[in-house]
Amino acid sequence: MSSPIEDYAFLSDMASAALVSRDGSIDWLAFPRFDSAACFAALVGEPRDGRWLLAPANPPRSVRRAYRGDSLVLETVYDCDDGEVAVIDCMPLRGDQLDVVRLVEGRRGRVAMHVELIVRFGYGKTVPWVRMIDGDWVAVAGPDALRLTTPVELRGDGEGGDRRTSGEFSVGVGEQVPFVLTWHRSHEPTHDVIDAAAAIDTTQQWWQEWSSQCTYHGRWSDDVRSSLTVLKGLTYVATGAVCAAPTTSLPETIGGVRNWDYRYCWLRDATFTLMALMEAGHTSEAKSWRDWLLRAVAGDPADLQIMYGLAGERWLDERELPWLSGYAGSTPVRVGNAASGQFQLDVHGEVIDALHQAAADGLEFDDDAWQLQKVLLDFLEGAWQQPDEGIWEVRGSRRHFTHSKVMAWVAADRIVRTAKRFHLDGPVERWRALRNEIHRDVLKHGVDERGVFVQTYGATALDASLLLVPLVGFLPATDDRVVNTIEAIQRELSADGFVVRYRTDPAVDGLPSGEGAFLLCTFWLANALALIGRVDEATEMFQRLLALRNDVGLLAEEYDPVSGRLLGNFPQAFSHTAIINTATTLDRHRGPTQRRAQPEASA
To answer: Which residues pair with 83 in a beta bridge?
Structure first.
């Protein structure tokens, strides 16, 4: 069984990613891209599905670990009966060469160590052909090859599907034992082997130099820089896309079926990601993301998808991997995502808002971005009254989700603001009329007799996405309907202070009930409370959320207040974006939430 989700640390070279547990096992690794077929898939299966264990031969007395400075270089220190040893892990930033570097370093006494390598290409499906070539261990299957370079003598163990490579060694004070695992295409020659210690130093220096560009220096500086590092690590640097998480099928409830592949780029993340990057001074990343967006969505606006592949791919067909037992027995394990074919009305508003925020925050104006906004709004004029699958990607029937209509209003509002601010061409009066029409429609059909915004037109169920009503500026925070909604969600959708998205109902979302508290929604609640003047309460909630991070500062998508466990794909970009945006909101009292919510009187 895999370790608890919170026991994992995250490694990235901004092309691919690995998860390494506290016990020294890399249980997830996908080369050459985040969304490639994993060669270590024990995270969603068993050790035989692929992992790389490097740890003391005997159980340690204690384990402590941390990232070195503001980097994704991980140092894990094992205190053992016979001494102390550190394992330093990183994925060097080397362009088209993809490596995992692990360096064992003796700190005290002499510690016996064990290494076990099980490679299974194709998400645990394919046992590779393993050979020793020029003293290196090489595994090949189809298009993929891995080469391990180390001075440790390795041996082959097991037969058939249980084949593995093992080795024992010991390390004393001041000694270092390197391991470099390199991926390459099986039909191409391998790259030169790198020096492990030098690669670690170079990687740490790069990350720290990047992190030093952060312009936020408030109360939560360390937390903001840590989350920015995670977002950068989730960026596919070749295109500028940001994947939602580096994993697939980590469950929203243990043993459940809500297990999805998050290794793609959701357009809905646009505004939040852009605001976080811009707020912290990372404008080049924001520009790269905008450029990716313009390429990805090019074409007929009727074909706009809610998510794309990391290079803008549109075909993200969903399939199940029945040979994998799932994280803690949570099946099915899925790759691809069928939600990419859904109609989600709110995405148009998110895209237009993202482009508006980028321009308003000083990103160099781009005429292509303006032309895209106009085309999207033209489509929205004829589509906003249609039912959709909504922000939570329900797999039941389409409905008139209130949040979706609010975001259609955002689209019209932001394009009017952009046209006014930059003196741009367009039928502004028609856009204003559309904005007013949508606003009236939402207030007529999306608010119940209690004066509370509801999940769908004519219903009474609540939805945490309606916390965005004041956060996007649809109504001022002082409006009674806003206050009523915030208080109703806090009262009826909270578990021990943490917010669920909605009360799951198979009739609505087409799936069995049950999931954890959704961390992003709890951050939204903190922001909404701040907007209505309950700043102390918002700050306390924010501190509780920060305390949910694991020992290396990472958050998943959800949290189970009963078991105290993180749930869902990990680490989750949305959760870390929310840390940045909430910190700046609470610290500056004029952060991205307030700016996004601020009306422009004559727009």
So the answer is: 80, 109
